[in-house]
Amino acid sequence: MSNTRFPKGFLWGGATAANQCEGGYNEGGRGLANVDVIPYGEDRYAVMAGKMKMLDFDNEHYYPAKESIDMYHRFKEDIALFAEMGFKVFRMSLSWTRIFPMGDEELPNEEGLRFYEEIFKECHKYGIEPLVTITHFDCPIHLIKKYGGWKNRKMIGFYENLCNVIFNRYKGLVTHWLTFNEINMILHLPFMGAGLYEEEGRNFEKDKYQAIHHELVASAIATKIAHEVDKNNKVGCMLAAGSVYPNTCDPKDVWEAYKSEREGYFFIDVQSRGYYPNYALKEMERKGIMPIMEVHDKDILRENTVDFISLSYYGTGLVSADPEVNKFTEGNAFPTLKNPYLKTSEWGWQIDTLGFRTTLNALYERYEKPLFVVENGLGAVDTVDENGEINDDYRIEYLKEHIEAMGDAIDKDGVEIIGYTTWGCIDLVSASSGEMKKRYGFIYVDKDNDGHGTLERKKKKSFYWYKKVIESNGENLEF
Questions:
Q1: Separation of alpha carbons 200 and 204, rounded Å
Q2: Does the pLDDT of residue 369 top 70, yes or no?
Q3: Residue 440 has pLDDT above 60, yes or no
Q4: Which of 134, 338, 350, 402 has the fewest CB atoms found within 10 Å of its own CB?
Q5: Longest C-alpha distance within the chain, in Å?
């Protein structure tokens, strides 16, 4: 079969985040980060959402990020497995506190810089391009304790210092960068997204939008530095994407869905177009949460827009304007009504492959910039059978259908897509639940929710299937 759907040079690969796979939280001079102190268990959501203050470890909770899957010590083994699948690209993130343990130092930690340099060189040894997220839900605890996290403008300078160091140090080793992971998550999980928590006497909503402004300015500054340091650098923004449907054809429901989609677009409107959209300015004015902006911020945003738009896609949303209907809303970070036309995963996430195509089209039409799908996958319980095999046909089916939808967006609709990295290409700690049993990977890691296991790596059936997908540039999806 001829390769007509996916362009030549399409970047197939997988994605991880430092805090969900790296471990080694107190090794190599690394400092403590917000993502380290988010516990497993019933308090996890309250901490992520900033409703429960937790800035250190205690004896009552288990903290899965401390060890994660120990990629800190096993990255060579893991990258070799990615290479065996044929990865063209590996999306990963940096741990800010591995490079600046406190976050506000003038000089970086050389041991941390060397660690990532080794990873990048290991990737290049196999012809794998690193795609690096600078900040993937990652903020030094010291910066939260001393400065209040991203609501403080000083954070921009600390982030700028980080960017100056990494762009210069890794020139020639990394050319694809993302500034902030799922930047719209600040609105839903502000401690995870920006190191914010509710404080007595402060307007939490106003703090969120101030933090958003600071991250948007920091993102633009990062883009500027990246382009100045190396003309080959390409910088992208990143949003948690997914079209939102109205519950009925009642115009009030349609308007509610429109507003809900726009809430996610807001960040990318600024990063891609270079200015605050009027709808966002009006809403912030109306709510009395307009962030303080310095005189040159508008110029910085306008002159340093991103090169491409990256996104995570796990499903679509369904909303109603009727408060009675909304009582039945389900979900964690992104609440949604149950769509009767869709199947759900074991964790209640609604699976919508056509919605993926819709979302890709909507983003491309809105921004007219290349897209990069950097997260898509199925969290599921995997079991090792009596023969030591893991037959995860359900995952293969999920990915097959999504790749087909993405192929349609490229081939039938003309959407420009750079690449596709499945989420959690190796089993890792779930960001939303802190679980290990919610597995996404092609590679099984022997570890349970309580942290027990050998950490042994084992290939699943999907490992061999994805290898064929990459070999055929997305044409052979059979299993």
A1: 9
A2: yes
A3: yes
A4: 338
A5: 66
